[in-house]
Amino acid sequence: MNESNTFAPLNFLRAVRFAGDDAATFLQGQLTADTLALPSSRWVRAAYCSLKGRVIASMLLGRSNDAYIAILCADIADDFATRLARFVLRAKVKITVFPSGCVTVAKNTNKVDSGTMKTEEEAQFFNDDGWLLRVTENEEPVTAVDLSTDSSWQQEQIFRGIPWVGREASELFIPQHINFELLDGVNFKKGCYVGQEIIARLHYLGKIKRRGYVVSGEGAPPPVGEKINGGEVVNAADDGKGGFVVFISAPCAAAESWEWGDLHLQLLPVPYSLQE
């Protein structure tokens, strides 16, 4: 680990831990990821969906020994934990929501494979193509905080076509409508989980008519949920140059020309193929 990395709070995110003998099997029936096959010290993308197959929350999910750490939007972390706690019943699972400030980020100068978790005492690290995420159980004082770090990280996630579903976008989209299976966020071979029937039916029998797109424009960013080209904004951020960049789920037929009010928006490429 490069000690020169300076970590700053990533206030956009929080962490939830699932510990106990039944944590793996419990999460297997709740999330789109295959938790039973997740090796220790690895991270994957996952989603928690409604019975109708709509994404309630998206996340990074990592395993450290027998515990699982979910990193997700801060504004939905408590609700996510409360929802899942209702289904624990007699299972041996303890759910802990970490305080704000426990997820920090630094520009990564030590390249390792993306998706690798490195555990050092109570810290779990995720290398995210130029960024290093760190999760600690207790909030730590951080010096030399750059207040633009949170916005810069969100901006880069959007440029890379990675959606983060929080409170305002919750239950609006099926995973395929935000490209989540293209990001390996859905395992279609793992068996049953909440919303699996609808998600699998679209994958095997349906034609995907909506996708996630990245577009940019001038001025202040639109709010999450704003309708553009018959779609809805999932994430939005300043681009640092007087404009904005957004990840939006919209009909494929509307992807050629983008307008928002009087603004003409520019469609940007994502680093993966949108083809089925």
TrEMBL record:
This is Folate-binding protein YgfZ. PANTHER family: TRANSFERASE CAF17, MITOCHONDRIAL-RELATED. NCBIfam families: ygfZ_signature (TIGR03317). It comes from Candidatus Doriopsillibacter californiensis. InterPro entries: YgfZ/GCV_T_CS, YgfZ/GcvT. It comes from the Bacteria.
